[in-house]
Design goal:
The protein is mainly α. Helix content is 70%, strand content 2%.
Length: 435
Amino acid sequence: MPDTTLRHRLFGRGSFPEATRIAEVLRAETTGGVLLMIGAAVALVWANSPWASSYAGLRDTVVGPSSLPLGLHLDLSLGTWAADGLLAIFFFVAGLELKREFVAGDLRDPRRAALPVAAAVGGMAVPALVFVAWNAGSRADLAGWAIPTATDIAFAVAVLAVISTHLPTGLRTFLLTLAIVDDLLAITVIAFFYTDTLQLSYLALALVPLAAFTVLVQRRVRSWWLLLPLAALTWVLVHESGVHATVAGVLLGFAVPVVRRAPGDGPGLAEHFEHVFRPLSAGFAVPVFAFFAAGVTVGGLSGFLDALRDPIAIGIVCGLVVGKAVGISGSTYLLARFTRADLDDDLSWVDVIGLSLLGGIGFTVSLLIGELAFGAGTPQDDHVKVGVLCGSIVAALLATVVLRGRNRVYRRLCEEEARDDDGDGVPDVYQRERG
């Protein structure tokens, strides 16, 4: 008989404190996702209205000094400030979240960490291969291979909120950690594959304020008047080095300690910063970026169809819809097969397919990579936006069909996870599993 003692459960609900924290994070991301949708919708309507030139003029308005000490140039358009500056806040929060998950969260258990990491790798590799297959004949078009590899957590949880789907804790945790690992892998791709020129002197200089920031946060210093200038200087120097400036956000996030130095209750510094900056990221940075990035003038139905005939757009749509579903669900299946892990008793592979389709909602990072690959405002970049929007919408609709069909099961699981018959503040199901 097979040995079942080594088996563990995929998509288990984890600990109650972690489940509570994940729920709080997703509530914030839901609000941000709704604002993201509004920002993108306003941009699309404006860019295709009689006042389209005013939208382009606003996006291309240059703000900032043209010359600074050390030869720094920060005279950037509002669209570039949104992509390079505001998204650095987004990646700073992602770095904090990922580090916290692996240091103090449930993912410090390698068996639990293996699932979102494997799913994220598969969910990036397969969409990239699908895009390359569609664009193999054009070397120039292959620059966009990484566009369909990203999952937008804010957009995804906003879709869940709109369709009123009650995902159980295990699936919610998986979705969040998958998206975070996905984002961090995407920023690594940006750093290595979308850096045209590298100024090593600026990169070396960036290490000085980054090191000072690290020393201060490791000493649990919270004074904004010390940390904020160091973070800003790190961002400026990374920006001038030729590496995309959002990388600075990730490095700063990884520098923040997770564990409290003094014993006792209360959040560590990483959790404190996350509470401070997540509302700024979800409620302002990402929606504003979406507003400036999503405004594509499609030129009516004929222009829209012409854009969709471009192999770039087709590759993105197929990568997001087919590649993500195959990559995430296929990686999960292989992990279960080779590690002898089982799905949680209350879940089925239909749930994995539904989440995999939901992972095909790529927006924020996909649009960013599109601009880096083809240049903001180019015809190819416009086709990228059409492909990302269409692919995300199709993936959201397919995920809705699958997940809504399982909503009765999810509602029952959520009711079980909230049941607290003894009134001690901890749901009974967590106490039974701990016992």
